[in-house]
Task: inverse folding
């Protein structure tokens, strides 16, 4: 919905930024640049805090970015900031944490299959998300212009925010390891593992 909001002809619809395809890609660029740096950082956060906590935090951050644009979208920087928060930070962190959790929860011989299933699931989710977005935007069109109304965009972003936090209900059951234990102080042996 972000590209559609940016491309809406403001002189006809009364909102949007009449951005061309090239301009839309420039608006999207900072979020994807951010995700490029957040991904590796997310991997480190998974090592420190565990994948469940990182995924839960990323879902909340994604929802916050979507709520922001649902309320504030009258200036291009509103949309860019929302993209950076929702896509760059939220989705960027969640994607890495989910892959890490998937790989850690299977035997090394099964990592190819597990990562493929993860990728297929993401593709299915994206396809369903596009259809939900299209339904949300077409739920309210202006009778004269046949374009989505501003309320349709608000509804779509609010719905996306709700859908972003729904997985929080199952994050506690997500496979993955606990945070890595801190290393013992120099000169001190680690505590023995019970049962060994």
Result:
């Amino acid at each position: 919905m972000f590209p559609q909001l940016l491309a809406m002809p403001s002189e006809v619809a009364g909102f949007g930024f009449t951005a061309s395809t090239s301009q839309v890609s420039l608006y999207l660029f900072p979020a994807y640049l951010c995700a490029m740096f957040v991904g590796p950082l997310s991997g480190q956060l998974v090592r420190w805090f565990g994948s469940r906590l990182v995924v839960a935090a990323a879902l909340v951050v994604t929802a916050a970015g979507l709520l922001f644009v649902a309320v504030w979208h009258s200036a291009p920087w509103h949309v860019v900031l929302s993209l950076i928060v929702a896509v760059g930070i939220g989705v960027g962190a969640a994607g890495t944490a989910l892959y890490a959790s998937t790989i850690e929860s299977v035997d090394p011989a099964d990592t190819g299959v597990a990562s493929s299933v993860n990728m297929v699931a993401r593709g299915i989710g994206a396809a369903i998300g596009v259809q939900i977005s299209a339904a949300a935007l077409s739920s309210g069109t202006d009778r004269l212009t046949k374009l989505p109304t501003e309320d349709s965009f608000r509804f779509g972003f609010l719905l996306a925010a709700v859908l972003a936090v729904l997985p929080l209900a199952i994050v506690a059951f997500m496979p993955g390891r606990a945070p890595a234990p801190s290393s013992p102080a120099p000169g001190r042996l680690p505590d023995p593992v019970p049962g060994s």
